[in-house]
Amino acid sequence: MVVGEITEDKDIVVIGGGPGGYHAAIRAASLGRQVTLIEREDIGGTCLNIGCIPSKVFTHFAREFKKTKHLKEMGMEFGEVVANLSSLQHYKKKKITQLRSGVESLCKANKVEIVRGSASFLSESRIGVENGHEFSLFNFKDAIVATGGDLHYPDGIDFNADRVLKERQIFELEEIPEELIVYGADYISLEITSVFSTLGSLVTLILNEELLFDSSISKELFRQLKKQKINVIKSSTIKTVSDTEEKVIVGLNKANGEMVSIEGSHFVMSGKVKPNLSDLGLDRLRVELTEDDYIQTDREGRTSIPHIWAIGDVTKGPSLAVKAIKQGKAAAEAMAGRSVEVDLQFLPAVVQMSPPIACAGMTEEEARQAGYSVAVSENFVRGNGYAQLADEKDGFVKVVSDSETDMILGIHMMGMGAAELITSGVLGLEMAARDEDFRFPLYHHPSMSESLLEAVEGLKGDAVHMPPRKEELAR
Q1: CB 22 within 8 A of CB 114
Q2: Distance between CA 335 and CA 291 in Å, rounded?
Q3: Which member of 23, 60, 445, 465 is catalytic?
C-alpha cells in the first residue's frame, strides 16, 4: 500500500452502502449536501445481496407453493407442481441484480458519488480508502458510519462441511434437504423452518432460548409447528456437530441435563450479529462505545464526536434494516438542521413464515408488569370472510389495552397479511390511540383488515363475528 500525497476534500462521507447507508446518502443529497458513499463490496449491503432479499425470495416462493392445492380446489388447472431450487436461484440472482442496479441508479440521479474500497478513520476529519493497490485520502466535514454487522457462531463447528450451513448459505442451495435440523430462536430460524417444511423437508427446530413473542402468539406458533409436523426441541444448547458421509449428527444438552443426538441430512445455524467495527480505525478517535462495543449515539444518531454519526447494526438495538433506514434518514436530516429523532419503542417485529407473524408494542405480560390495568381481545382469523375464501384460516389478532384509559398498548398478529397490516397498528401506537380511534374509521369489506377492527371491538364485547363474552362488560 502506497499512500498518495493528494487529499480530496469531501462534504459528507457515508461508510457503508447497505440500506441505512444508501438511504442516508440519498436523503442528505436531496437536502443539498455533496455526498460520497464508500462501499467495499456491493451496493445494497448484506440486506439486498445475501440477507433480507434472498431470504424473502424463498419465503415468497414457499407461500406461493403452498397455495397450489387451494388453487386446484378453486378450479385452476395445471400439471404436477415441483419446487425447482435451481430455477429459484436464477430468479433470486436476477432480482438482486435488478434491485442493486436500481439503488445505484438512484444514487447517480441524486449525484451521490460512489467510491469502492475499505474505509478507515485516520483522524476525526480524515479517512483513507483502500481498493487493491490504490489508496485515497479524504478530508470530510461530516461522516456517517453504516458498516453493518458480522455474524458470529460458537467455536468448534466446521462450516466448511458441505451440509453444515450458516443461515445465509441455506438460501444458496439448489436441492431441498431431506431432513433439515435448524438451530436458533430468531425470526430467521423460524422462516427457514417454515420454508423448507413447506417445500418438503422433514424439519427439526432446536430452540436455544425462549421466543420473545406475546404468550398467545407463542402458543399458536407451537400449534402451527405441530400441525406442519415440525419437530420442536425446546431449551437446548448445541455441543457438537459432526458431518459424516451420509448424515449430520448434532449433539445437544437439554435444560434438564440430558444429552441427546439428532440426525439429519443438513444442519443450519443462525448466528449472532455483532457490530462490524474492527477495521474502521475507531481506536484513533475518541468515539464512545457501549458496554457491548456498539457505537454510542443520541436519538439523532450523533456520536460523541459531533460531526460523526452512526446508524444501523453498529448501534445498539435490533439488527433490522428498518432500524438502519430510519436512522439513516434521521441522521441526514439532523445534519441539515432539522429537528428529528429515532424512537424504536414501536419497531415492528415480523416473521415471514406461514402463517406470518407481526407484532408491535407491549405484550400482555409486559403491560401487566408495567402496572397497567390490562384488557385483551383476541379475534381468530377463521371468522374473517376473506380469510375463508382465500383458505388462509390460521392465526388471530390480539390487542392489548389499558382498561382505565382505553389506550392501545400492543398489537400482535398471526395470519395472512399480518406483515402489511401491522403498519396500521404501529401508526395507532405512535399516536397513542384509544380503542375508539381504531373503531371510528371505515374498514373495507371483505378484507383481512377487518380482523384488526373486530379485535379492537372485542375489547368491549362489541365484535359481531366473535362469541359473546360471558362476563359482565365494564364500560
Answers
A1: no
A2: 27
A3: 445
Residue 475 pLDDT? 40
pLDDT averages per 10-residue partition of the chain, 475 residues: 73 98 98 98 96 97 96 93 97 98 98 97 96 95 97 91 95 97 97 98 96 96 97 94 92 89 96 94 94 96 97 96 98 96 96 97 98 97 95 97 98 97 97 98 96 97 85 48
pTM equals 0.94
User: What amino acid is encoded at 458 in this protein?
Assistant: G
Tell me whether strands 357-361 and 349-351 are parallel, antiparallel or unpaired: antiparallel
Tell me which CATH homologous superfamily contains domain 154-270: FAD/NAD(P)-binding domain (3.50.50.60)
Measure the CA–CA gap between 281 and 348, rounded to whole angstroms. 33
Per-residue model confidence (pLDDT) at position 470: 64
> Domain locations in the chain?
7-52+87-151+274-335, 154-270, 355-460
| Spatial separation of the C-alpha atoms in residues 22 and 36, rounded to whole Å | 10
Q: Give residues with Cβ within 8 angstroms of 149, minimum separation 6.
A: 46, 273, 274, 275, 276, 312, 313, 314, 319
Overall fold of domain 355-460 = Enolase-like; domain 1 (3.30.390)
Element (H, E) at 326: helix 321-335
Grid cell, residue 383, equals: 371468522
CATH number listed for the domain at residues 7-52+87-151+274-335: 3.50.50.60
Catalytic residue check, 133: no
Contact 446, 385 (CB under 8 A): yes
Query: Taking a C-beta distance cutoff of 8 angstroms, is the pair 152, 278 a contact?
Result: no
Fold match between domain 7-52+87-151+274-335 and domain 154-270:
yes
Taking Cα atoms as reference points, which of 174, 211, 176, 175 lies closest to residue 93? 174
For residues 300 and 327, is the Cβ–Cβ distance under 8 A?
A: no
Asked if residues 251 and 240 have their Cβ atoms less than 8 Å apart, the reply is: yes
